[in-house]
Amino acid sequence: MMRVLAVLLAVLISPAANAERYSFAAFGDLPYNEAERAEFPLLLDAMREAAVVFGVHVGDIKTGGTPCDDITLTDIRDLLAGAPFPTVYVPGDNEWVDCTRRSAGGFDALERLDKLRSLFQPKAESLGAEPFKVERQSDVDFSHGAYQEHLRWRRGPVAFLTLNVPGSDNNFGSGREASNEYRQRMSAVRSWLGDGFAKARRDSARAIVIFMHADPDFEAFAAGSPARAYSELLYALRSEVMEFEGEVVVFHGDTHVMRIDRPLVDSDGAPIERFRRAEVFGSPIPGWLEVTVDTEAEQLIRIRPRPLRKED
């Protein structure tokens, strides 16, 4: 009798023992000017007060026309590195693709991308006062050894990964054929995406969260006319989502229109209910998305918009 009671007690206790609840922050497309730079620490303070376990900046740490010099890039790196929680950064187009503009300093785009890697992903760990370990594609996939900005980590039932897919045109190039840089990077992106989903399935993850900068124009894809710079990404993403039984959430920036929806469709044109897209706030409206993972809730991942100013 005592043994039966012990077994019943273990069954009753185990769900609570395995329960997990935490929140993280997603933000990006700022700061774009001196006023937003001054507000940036306030944004981090708001996240700290909400007790987030980490934050992810999805790219564009400046405007496309402002200098891409080391001082500008290092300034934002230092802000993220000084955050009281772990932080992760994803490259946006303004800080490498658009650096070839005269107003941005006329830099070589690939040289600036390498600079970002050395500043934001020098080691296999996040930034922040208390960094956590991550896996970098450059360390686990030697065929794509340059892509140390492609990261992945796991927290509880959720697998996380980052992709270097910048806004504008994903550095596709101005010609009819894609640029060499685009082809090489997208080969790495597809590989990292596929490996991430495969690992999530092996590890029985309940959800996958992906961070990138670009709005890949899900609407054009749903209409059957995908943007050429994002077509292969979206086909690969849809294929992986269809093979994965859990939730999938993509966080991105780029168009500065905060929204949360289900824009990815299957091959019949029907929305895939397990998939959500969440675009972060962006200049001129500072804010962040508070994302809560709760294993006891009906929906594992919940997203709450958090504008910095109440009037926004």
Descriptive notes:
By secondary structure, the chain is of the alpha/beta class. It has one domain: 4-Layer Sandwich (Purple Acid Phosphatase, chain A, domain 2). Helix content is 33%, strand content 19%. It contains eight helices and twelve strands. It has a seven-stranded mixed sheet with strand order 4-5-6-7-8-10-9. Helix 3 packs parallel to helix 4 and helix 6 runs parallel beside helix 8. The radius of gyration is 20 Å and the shape is globular. The protein starts with a helix and ends in a 5-residue tail after the last strand. About 4% of the residues have low confidence.
Low-confidence stretches: 4-17
The shape, in one word, is globular
- Nearest-angstrom radius of gyration? 20 Å
Give me the number of helical elements. 8
Structural class: alpha/beta
